[in-house]
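Sample 3 of the quickstart, ligand zinc ion:
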Amino acid sequence: MTELKALLREVSLLGQASALLGWDQQVYMPAGGAAARGQVLGQLRKMMHERTTSSDVGRLLDALEPMVKDLDPYSDAAALVRLVRRGYERSIKIPKELVIEMSEAGAAGYQAWLQAREEKNFLLFKDHLARQFELARRVADLLGYEDHPYDANLDRYERGLKTADVEALFSGLRERLVPLVRRIAERADAVDDSFLYQHYPQAQQLALAEEVLRLIGFDFQHGRQDLTVHPFCMGVAITDVRLTTRVDENWFSNCFYSALHEGGHGLYEQGLPQEYEGLPLAETVSLGIHETQSRLWENVIGRSRAFWEHFLPVAKKYFPDQLSGVTPEQMFRAVNKSQPSFIRTEADEVTYNLHVMLRFDLEKDLIAGKIDVADLPDLWNAKMEEYLGITPPDDVVGVLQDVHWAGGMIGYFPTYTIGTVASIQLYNAAVAANPDIPAAIGRGDLSGLLAWMREHVHRHGSRYTPEELLERATGSKLDFEPYMAYMEQKYTDIYGL
Ligand code: ZN
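Result:
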């Protein structure tokens, strides 16, 4: 076991270097550094891949498996061996050359995506995108799948998730969400959010974002926040968690809610069990569970009435003129205004999942070869019209808006909706265990909620599967009923439906 742990910790150090270089690539690196950065990241990933697929790992696992087979399957030793075996079996199916190719394609794709956005020209990105889908298909064929090549890609981000599960979840949700969007549209002028669209200077926005991050418990001794094009959170180490955000000086919500969202991810990364750092036991369990944490702080808390009762006076210190005369109730309603919009990351809670469904439909068909990358902008716009009733004026606010496909992250989007749905299940379970939580939010005390998440989600790392973790924490499997009940109640209240 000692030998296996040493090997894993060595790979984890390479992973930390790679994470930091990846963070820098999206935050500070000059565009001209892309090729050199692609090479160094490729080299690091090659070294990690060589170590994790070496026959040493297979030999150690073969020797350890008989020793742990009678232990509690969730004990440190048994869970560790099981997780390493899973990773090993997957890694050995992907040849080293392909790992390097994927890494280089990701670096080149990211730069092409930036360029295409800059020039509002999808054609500059098209071939890079086609290459990413071709690579994703090759990975699916190598990893194997039962029903759909997309399954193998989903499983990279959400262990065990199947295309058919996502289809069932999405069609159930769509049946309830689409009528809600329509009922809200009929009362569109019931909410005034015009005061959110004034001049909010960047420096104050960033300072307020930092203040709200401190309020939810993000530790700046072990993390920081920087600016980027597409906000993300990168856990370099448990003690070094990087958040990124962006600022629109003419809109309050962009930076504020990006910060809360990424801050939620950051709390999860900072809450992982340090005694296992470098081992899979200290890794976040899945993107879906990761997203429960970001959506919780962004929406369930940050867009609640109780939160603004406490936090509006704080925000007014930074923006005394812009928020002059605004009441907590007006703020609560304004930040929840719902209307179809183009950008997923800026979408309200009601329309958000429809953006995810659109991407799922397209990437599933692209990987199966049913549609062609060249037709993507048109297909995108047609789906926007179908789900949200609006057509993007250009590809920057259409098919070019997300960074994921540029970097080869295909099969990632559904985890956003899974996390959004499960965030309500976790919140309800936390409140059932600690009924003071809603009142405490109104007092600006979020420690009880964070403590519950630390205890039931963060500290478990990857010991359980995402499904097991959710069931142990909430007593039930993934279920969209509590989520829809929350949504219908909240929006009936706001819009007087
Ligand atoms: Zn997120």
